[in-house]
Amino acid sequence: MPLINAEEKKVFNLYSNNENAKERELTKKIACKRIGLALSGGGYRASFFHLGVLANLAEKNILKDISIISTVSGGSIIGGLYFIKLRSKLLEKKQLTHKDYVDIIKELEEDFTIGVSKKIREKLFLHPVNELRAVFQQREKLLARLYEKYFYKLKYTMSELQVSGLPKLIINATLLENGGPWYFSQYDMGQYESEIIHDSKGTLSYDSNHIYLRDAVAASSAVPGLFNYVKFFSHTSDKFLSRRRHSLRV
Predict the structure, then answer these.
(1) Closest Cα partner for 220 from 160, 177, 170?
(2) Whose CA is closest to 147, among 243, 194, 217?
(3) What is the pTM of this model?
(4) In whole numbers, what is the pLDDT of the chain averaged over residues?
(5) What is the widest separation between alpha-carbon atoms in the chain?
(6) What are the PNPLA domain coordinates in residue numbering (predicted)?
(7) Do strands 203-205 and 188-190 pair parallel, antiparallel, or not at all (unpaired)?
(8) With 189 labelled, which of 5, 139, 233, 248 sits at a CA distance of 20 to 30 A?
(9) Residue 50 contacts by C-beta under 8 Å, 6 or more apart in sequence?
(10) Between β-strands 188-190 and 181-184, what pairing exists: parallel, antiparallel or unpaired?
(11) Which bin fits 200, alpha (ψ -120 to 50), beta or left (φ > 0)?
(12) Residue closest to 39 by CA, chosen among 48, 31, 50, 29
């Protein structure tokens, strides 16, 4: 068993409050690796559950050790909001303290609760103006703009989330063309190479593809049956350096 450093030992001690030797050894192995946080789906109920998880991790001073955040659906809504608040705080202070993480989660809880109270779903399906807009515009795009208005406040592109010291954010969705998982991170978007994904699209750069956080979250949280898909246009170059525009339904 490799030795662990002081920071890893802190994580190990937080989780090893039992007397089971096998569990202690497993925890020790986990402490030697990077920590990832997965925020699952389930609508706003899932989002509020994840708020409790984030608050607990902040109190235990573990949030600073998380290097990857993977989200889907309700997890993407709250994960995206946490991420931009963490980004803002890092740009402000560079080095965050335990109290900073606790304060971020308190602010997150307040802002998310206010956002939910605006009843986005009612505005989307029952508001006469939005019903009229839905005739000419994808309802999924309206959902994305409501997310931006009531949760994210600013028009962030995914590439703007690239700030040193932030964990990697992975917002998960599905590409309708082949039924395989599709991800958006702050660095790129695409599909992981896998034998089970027919005709995998690989990864696409944001250099010529401007994707907004609001649209990535909408694609991740669009409930089948209520929404169709979020349509993106990707641009690639062939060997003759001609630009090609592709439609992606996510």
Answers:
(1) 170
(2) 217
(3) 0.78
(4) 79
(5) 65
(6) 38-250
(7) antiparallel
(8) 139
(9) 39, 74, 75, 78, 79
(10) antiparallel
(11) beta
(12) 50
What gap in Å lies between CA 172 and CA 158, rounded to an integer?
A: 13
Token pair belonging to 51: 């708020």
Residue whose pair of structure tokens reads 């984030």 in the numeric block? 54
Q: How confident is the model at residue 157 (pLDDT cuts 50, 70, 90)?
A: very high
- The C-alpha atoms of residue 185 and residue 190 are separated, in whole angstroms, by 9
Strand order in the sheet with 35-39: 35-39, 66-72, 168-174, 181-184, 188-190, 203-205
Q: How open is the CA angle 103-106-110, to the nearest 5 degrees?
A: 140
CB 157 within 8 A of CB 213: yes
Sequence-distant (≥ 6) Cβ neighbours of residue 129 within 8 angstroms: none
- Both structure tokens of 118: 């605006």
Separation of alpha carbons 58 and 182, rounded Å:
29
The token pair that represents 218 in the structure block: 């909408």
| Residue type (1 letter), 58 | A
DSSP letter (8 states) at residue 227: B
- Name 172's bridge partners: 72, 183
- Residue 135, classified by CB atoms within 10 Å of its CB into exposed (0-12), middle (13-18) or buried (19+), is exposed
Q: Is 209 helix (H, G, I), strand (E, B) or coil?
A: coil
Q: Rounded distance, CA 11 to CA 154, Å?
A: 35
Q: What is the dihedral of CA 35, 179, 216, 114, to 10 degrees?
A: -80
Q: Kindly provide the residue ranges of all beta strands, DSSP E only, lying in 66-151, ordered along the sequence.
A: 66-72
**Which of 123, 101, 122, 8 is closest to 54 using CA atoms?**
101
